[in-house]
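Troubleshooting entry. The earlier prediction with zinc ion gave an output that would not parse, so I re-checked the input for stray whitespace and re-submitted. Clean input:
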Amino acid sequence: MHHWQPSITCGLVWVEEASCCEAYVLCWEARQCEAGQYFVRRRTVAGVFEETARGPYGPAVVAWRELAARHACRRRTAS
Ligand SMILES: [Zn+2]
């Protein structure tokens, strides 16, 4: 289970990879006073960004792949 919290970023955010429909986006944030951090970002129905798995690349990628695999695509099931 992933713990989601409001995504408040203070540095430059780069998009590494986006899943289908951009449901989950693997991001990297460059920080001025510490090492850059990876995290998984999603947008809620309210249009607010939330993030999870903040930290080093490995665990963030694992979380992103797991979440992306769970994405139930409306575009794919509609036809
Ligand atoms: Zn999709």
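This one parsed fine. The chain has one domain: 5-78.
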